Amino acid sequence: MTTSTVNKAVASALAAVMLVVGAGCGVQQQSAPAAVNWEERYPGYKTDFYEAVNKAQFDEWEIPDSDPSIGHFIALDRENNQRLLKLMEDAAQSAGTTDDSDTAVVGALWATGNDIEARNAGGFGNAQRFIDAVDEAQTTRDVIKAAIDFDRMYGYYSFFGMSLAPDSADASRKVHYLGPTDLGLTKEEWHSSIEETKTRVKLYEELMAQLWVESGASAADAEAKVSSVTKAMRDLSGSALDQADMYNAEKTYNVHTMADLEAVYGGAVPMDHVYKAYGVSPEDKVVVKDEGLWKATAKFLHEADLQLVKDYLKTCLFSDLGTINTHDAFLKVSENHRKRLGMEEAKPFDQNLAAQVNNWVPFQCGRLYANAYYDPKVEADIQSMVDDFLDVYATRINGLEWMTASTKKEALAKLDAMTARIGVPDVWPQDRYGIEVKTPEEGGLYIDNILAVLQADREYEFATKDEPVDGTLWEDPPQTINAFYDLSGNNITLLAGVLNSPFYSGDATEEENLGGIGMIIAHEITHAFDSSGSQYDSNGNLRNWWAQDDAKKFEELGQSVVEYYSAQSVRGMQVDGQLTLGENIADLGAMACVSAVAKQRGLDLRKVYAAYANLWAEEVRDEYLANLVTTDSHSPGKVRVNAVLSATDDFYDAFGITEQAAMYVAPEDRPHIW
Ligand SMILES: [Zn+2]
Fold this sequence. Notes:
Neutral endopeptidase, domain 2, disordered N terminus, binds zinc ion, about 675 residues, 30 helices, 2 domains, alpha+beta, four-stranded mixed beta sheet, Collagenase (Catalytic Domain)
């Protein structure tokens, strides 16, 4: 199963494309005029720019024993985790005595999360009812009925689940999305030929067996159940969309009615119960993202025996609840996670819990964080950078040789309508409804507090489903160290967490801020025009605004990006050019834009490129790298730097890169789109 949060994330995975990066260029700080001997400063930079520029950083960094990698984003994230942990401890001190609802909720979650004895005694808490219903079910339909109830109430789905998100055809309205069947792992992981990924699959199976034992099964029983369930997951995943297609609206925006669901499920899913539980009718619209998986699931539910369906569902459930029910289960998940990512030791419990609480009540934590650590004064500076980039982008689009006037007009309208969300939101989602949680003193249990949070969110989601999409609400909390482009909102979000050094600082040089947050901003803007964003118009609606020849040309250019990146690898692990296409287009477009801005301002491009190389400096364990190249839509840091710069004409002029250099790529092989 997956929670509604993840569900929504998937629904709007199409919607929100994240970048991971940052830093401003509005601050007019002059760089030191002293000439730099680049070969002396970065020996070997023409051979491997990324390694050369980041050498000093790499010498200093060591991957912490309890982390899969180290980089600036992760370092900032660790720092944030410590800050949040302290805020949570403070909140717990006053939970139960305060009128401040953020403090009360965060404090109660933190305190009950730390109450190990109560957690071990409490088991699955209020989720036990649902497990009992599965156990007592006499037919597959009854099992699915229980699954529907659990999804509707908390947003945890396995075989069946629905959530509401902006409709791609009309982004001002919400529509039901059918959740994709829980496959435990991704299709790519189930069928991977990479050794590290095969080990990862084995470890997943091992963990599932441990969680069955934790819930009372014998070791032999657990192994047999997991063996048949994972076989079913692997089989079903064969019918699922490739990850690379998850961002392609042509493949994921499949419009149906609820009656269509009924026809395909043909009795395997009790649709009368669906209508009642979600308050929908047969003629209501539903979007199915993964048609192949949907149909394969229907077939599976018809053919599989009752016991297998029960075991499958419970495996999903144990997996989903493994970190929030007993502390014993949590330790098993944590240890397995350590092995899967090749870490020396598991993260300390308090850091893990802080990350969890931050995940369950992100905006409550976010407001406490913003009050303590965010200075809204940076907003004007960031907004002026955004405006500058939008101007340069418009000029660049106007100058494109491959695009005709009618398409340019639409692209410029989209650019013109784009807005930026900077720092912290004006409207906080938790103010829309109340959440009832209990402290340990009030008899509170961690899992039940989390279920209460999820239930309140689901009640609100369905109570407001006929209301227009609320554009004031943000998808992501401000403390997150990231930035996003939202397809349906046609806006970029630059969260408070990313508006920090080394991405952005009022003390940094203009070049540093441009290579940092400047690249982040331009990257997010480019997402509006990547392989996925280009399918949506200025209102965030899925609409083909491309002249036919331009669309064909854009596709050809995209193909050149796929080929260029498919030839890249890191430590023998090859980049998937198709999976990473959208992100690579965003990086390439951002670099073209940032180079243009730097030249306009008469800045030293070499310093901008060095700052950019630093942005993606990272050291990654092999196990984690294998996971990333299989499942992450971003290219590894080294590729984001070297491949992007080798495709940037200005890079050659700035550094005098010639054919003899390893960084050299022939002009006709450099992909250019924007
Ligand atoms: Zn991105």
